[in-house]
Design brief:
The structure is a single chain. With about 950 residues, this protein is α+β, with helices and mostly antiparallel strands. It is built from 19 helices and 48 strands. The strands form nine sheets. The protein has a nine-stranded mixed sheet, with no helix packed on it. The radius of gyration is 32 Å and the shape is globular. About 55% of the residues are buried.
């Protein structure tokens, strides 16, 4: 059962709902709007008729300050109109642009690279600094403290070296294969201890004739780039990796030391240093198998071609035209007043207008409408900064404003069948309408965008409030977009009404969040701090419970619920509370865009850290790491049948019941062709979980069932050769034990996998596999026992005899001992140790002298052949706590039955769902009802 505010919402939801996935979001792509010509922008006036032969894009009538522009346009003096329009925008006040957005790591000083047509996709290659080598070999150093500190928890750090300029010269550095002078990472700890770490992997990759060559055994690392375009046949990049796992603490200082020289005799050569966040093997890395994220068109007269280079991640060609660099570059100009910066950014913007004119989608829509909306958002911010620059000429200003008009017209009509795309598109339209009210149509665009966004949010939610895309990052992104829209509307004198749909989405996010308020990273998402986003939503909604979550208990009021189920979204969360040290499990069979093949996956967090996390996605490339993370079910905490990954959007179902002492969640999926998978998760609240997997094949053949369990790269998994229990051994903090109930028939192993906490960042990570080969119905029962730092919690689980079609366990764990029954259905009495029950699930334990019992379905629980619990009708999920010392009986979840008897003749007080009730004692049984 559930209590409080959330129960009201859940009670209103039908338990079944058919959603036609293909028809959920109607979409019909619109043709790109062309950029208006100069006369179409300013208008063509017919003095004979006193009318506009061509209607202007500017609303002269509504803005008297444009009178001089209008007069010039009417006389056909467009140069004078352009000059007047620039003067108008330079002096205009009272308009706030949308904030700029980016999808990579920005470091101050990187503006120079952007202006020189040097750009990095995402966060996998993060700029650190630029240094130079001379003709004489010498040691060069780079301060990498910030990077080493952030990388310490992952156990490794990598670097990439790339030529700063296109020139016919090579920088050469001694590799770890050299007799001396190899790469060293010099690390200093807080106590002054210094560690000089040698590289554990280094190599370079070379284009051209050596594109397939492995160069990790070479005594030198080469760095070179020349020619036009993003790379040439002589391009070389170097990669280094250092093992940080032996460091007892994060460093307070880290310096990279390289021995190198420039092979050219005509002067020094500049080298750009990046942090490399994709783990690599020097024995296999080549140009051909490396997905590169940084490219340079430096020195190319044509500059960026706004396309993705061959061999790059497919997102490169989408995200480069989004102008993610425009905001930082504009801010650099605002700070320094350096006109060289302003001129460079304006040149990039006008270069795009020229290059995209003849491409699919044109200037407004190239390469896709999603990319277009981010570009216009970033351009609007940049324009607000650049409008006062002396580098902005009347002609350039008019060129950009014509592109803005085309963009707004395009974004007002283009569509997509993906909710987050449409919300982003219309949000940018809202920003354009607010910032450029002088454009004809802006008032209509504003009204239409506001109406559409409200309707779109409603259609982007399932009836239970869950988000329809199976990706935590995209769900939060949509919510944050509404937060930004509200702030932008307010800044421009407009109002924003937060509706119940936004409240529902906000609480869906809060419910999914880890207890430390971080992204649970399901679907193709990465880890991120959700606290700032939820804080904005709490302010918008004036929700004190949401504020409590967002501030990690620092403000607001504690939520009136903990565990929760979203039955239509097919997601359940089991949690003990909202503090960082609380326990949490997410159980799902969700579906929709951005989902991965993970039906009935669980993710576990306890005592301050993710213990069995989601493993991320890495990228949208077709490289082996991304493919494994996104398309292989073995990359998730679920069961894979016959080595074949699950299919997406399969028929499935999920439900959960919450009581004060237990949460019981049950799900099923047909995502595997060979067998139906059912999974039950019993949370003994505050202590541990029991996971029961039942695989029911569709034939009589033998099948292989592989249950997988994942943790973080520094988990240091071990598997006991006898019990086959797996344990993590983090250097600090919490750990977890994974204990199979029946080790004899299963094969246990540790396999090599990957963990990607963010896009374009990936590390190797061991994971646990339990493989069972069987004919007929197969069962895997597993105990998940989290442990506080240093607690050394132990657990034993033993399978005991029971009736056909069920499994029964005896266990001891964390001060508890008890018995557990999991059956295929209710109605048939089955023994489990000293107990027997006719339930689907039964559980009995004694902890610190208090006995707790659970019955899911059925009517009776026996102990030693005598009734312990007896009901007149089949129960739902009933839990009972018997406290002899206090002489109290507490019952939760009494539904279905009209009379309940409990073997508690000593009882003096009985409560049902926390409320005292009348009872009688007869024949040794306390009777309720």
């Amino acid at each position: 059962m559930e209590f409080g505010r959330r129960a009201v919402l859940r009670a209103a939801i039908a338990t079944t709902l058919a959603v036609a996935a293909g028809g959920l979001f109607a979409a019909s792509p619109a043709a790109a709007a062309s950029v208006p010509s100069e006369d179409e922008f300013f208008g063509v006036w017919n003095p004979a008729t006193g009318t506009w032969t061509k209607e202007p894009a500017l609303d002269y009538a509504a803005f008297g300050a444009l009178a001089e522009v209008e007069a010039a346009a009417k006389s056909g003096a467009y140069d004078r109109a352009s000059a007047g329009l620039l003067a108008y925008y330079r002096g205009r006040e009272g308009r706030t642009p949308p904030p700029w957005v980016q999808n990579n790591v920005f470091v101050a000083g990187q503006e120079e690279l952007f202006l020189d047509h040097f750009w990095t996709l995402g966060t996998g290659e993060a700029y650190i600094s630029t240094f130079a080598v001379d003709g004489a070999e010498a040691e060069v150093t780079a301060d990498v403290t910030r990077n080493a500190r952030s990388a310490h928890a992952s156990g490794w750090i990598g670097f990439m070296l790339m030529a700063r300029h296109k020139e016919a010269s090579t920088a050469e550095f001694r590799s770890r294969q050299a007799a001396s002078g190899g790469p060293v990472l010099s690390v200093t700890l807080a106590d002054g201890t210094v560690f000089d770490l040698a590289a554990n992997h280094d190599t370079y990759i070379a284009n051209g004739d050596q594109s397939g060559a492995v160069l990790g055994a070479e005594p030198e690392l080469q760095v070179r780039d020349e020619g036009t375009g993003p790379y040439g046949p002589q391009t070389r990049k170097a990669y280094l990796s250092f093992d940080l796992s032996t460091l007892p603490a994060a460093p307070t200082k880290a310096v990279l030391r390289l021995t190198g020289r420039s092979a050219a005799a005509d002067g020094p050569k500049q080298v750009v240093l990046f942090q490399e966040k994709e783990a690599f093997d020097e024995a296999t890395r080549t140009w051909n198998n490396t997905v590169q994220n940084t490219f340079s068109w430096q020195g190319d007269p044509g500059g960026f071609d706004w396309k993705g280079p061959a061999g790059s991640d497919p997102e490169y060609g989408y995200q480069l035209p989004r102008f993610y660099f425009a905001g930082p570059v504009a801010d650099a100009y605002r700070t320094t007043g350096d006109e060289r910066i302003a001129a460079g950014l304006l040149s990039l913007m006008t270069d795009f207008v020229q290059d995209a004119a003849d491409r699919p989608g044109g200037v407004p829509g190239f390469p896709r409408n999603l990319d277009s909306c981010w570009r216009y958002l970033n351009w609007t911010y940049a324009y607000d900064v650049l409008r006062t620059s002396s580098s902005l000429t009347p002609a350039i200003n008019t060129t950009l404003l014509r592109a803005f008009v085309a963009g707004a017209r395009y974004l007002a009509t283009t569509t997509s069948n993906t909710p987050n795309w449409m919300i982003s598109i219309r949000s940018t339209l809202l920003g354009l309408a607010l910032y450029f009210p002088e454009f004809k149509g802006s008032s209509r665009w504003l009204a239409d965008a506001q109406t559409f966004l409200g309707e779109q949010l409603r259609s982007a939610l399932f009836p239970d409030g869950g988000y329809v895309e199976a990706s935590s990052g995209y769900a939060m992104g949509v919510a944050q977009t509404f937060g930004k829209n509200a702030a932008l509307l307010k800044a421009n004198g407009e109002s924003f009404a937060a509706g119940e749909d936004l409240r529902a989405l906000s609480w869906y996010l809060a419910d999914q969040a880890y207890p430390d308020v971080r992204d649970p990273s399901y679907g193709d998402s990465g880890s991120a701090d959700w606290s700032p986003g939820l804080a904005v939503l709490a302010d918008l909604l004036s929700d004190e419970e949401l504020r409590h979550v967002a501030t990690r208990g620092g403000a607001g009021r504690a939520p009136g619920h903990t565990s929760v189920v979203y039955p239509v979204t097919r997601t359940a969360v089991q949690r003990t509370g909202w503090a960082e040290q609380d326990l949490y499990l997410r159980f799902s069979a969700d579906r929709g865009p951005h989902s991965v093949r993970d039906d009935l996956d669980v993710a576990v967090y306890a005592y301050g850290r993710p213990l069995l996390p989601e493993m991320g996605a890495f990228s949208y490339s077709s490289d082996p790491k991304s493919n494994w993370l996104r398309f292989d079910s073995r990359s998730r905490n679920t069961v894979t049948v016959d080595g074949v990954s699950q299919v997406l959007d399969a028929a499935a179902g999920l439900s959960q019941t919450h009581t004060p002492w237990f949460d019981l969640a049950t799900g099923w999926t047909d995502a595997s062709a060979a067998a139906r998978h059912s999974r039950t998760v019993l949370f003994v609240r505050g202590r541990f979980w029991i996971v029961s997997d039942v695989l029911t094949p569709h034939d009589s053949a033998e099948h292989s069932y592989q249950q997988t369990w994942h943790s973080l790269p520094d988990a240091r998994f071990t598997v006991d050769p006898v019990t086959k229990a797996a344990s993590t051994a983090f250097a600090t903090g919490a750990n977890i034990r994974i204990v199979p109930s029946d080790p004899a028939p299963i094969t246990a192993g540790l396999d090599d996998g990957y963990y990607s906490p963010a896009f374009y960042t990936v590390s190797e990570a061991k994971y646990v596999t339990y493989t069972l080969k069987a004919t007929g119905t197969a069962r895997l029962d597993t105990l998940l026992l989290p442990a506080h730092a240093g607690s050394g919690a132990e657990a034993e689980v033993t399978r005991v005899r029971t009736g056909y079609g069920a499994s029964a366990l005896r266990f001891t764990a964390d001060r508890s001992s008890g018995w557990y029954l999991h059956a295929g259905g209710a109605g048939r009495e089955r023994a489990f140790g000293p107990y027997a029950a006719d339930a689907r699930v039964a559980y009995a334990e004694t902890t610190d002298g208090v006995e707790r019992l659970l019955l899911d379905g059925g009517t009776v629980l026996l102990r030693g052949g005598r009734p312990l619990i007896r009901a007149d009708l089949e129960l739902g999920t009933l839990t009972v706590e018997l406290d002899r010392e206090r002489r109290s009986v507490a019952v939760a979840g009494l539904s279905g039955a009209t009379r309940l008897e409990v073997a508690a003749p000593w009882a003096r007080r009985v409560t049902v769902d926390g409320e005292p009730v009348r009872f009688t004692v007869r024949h040794g049984m306390a009777r309720i009802g």
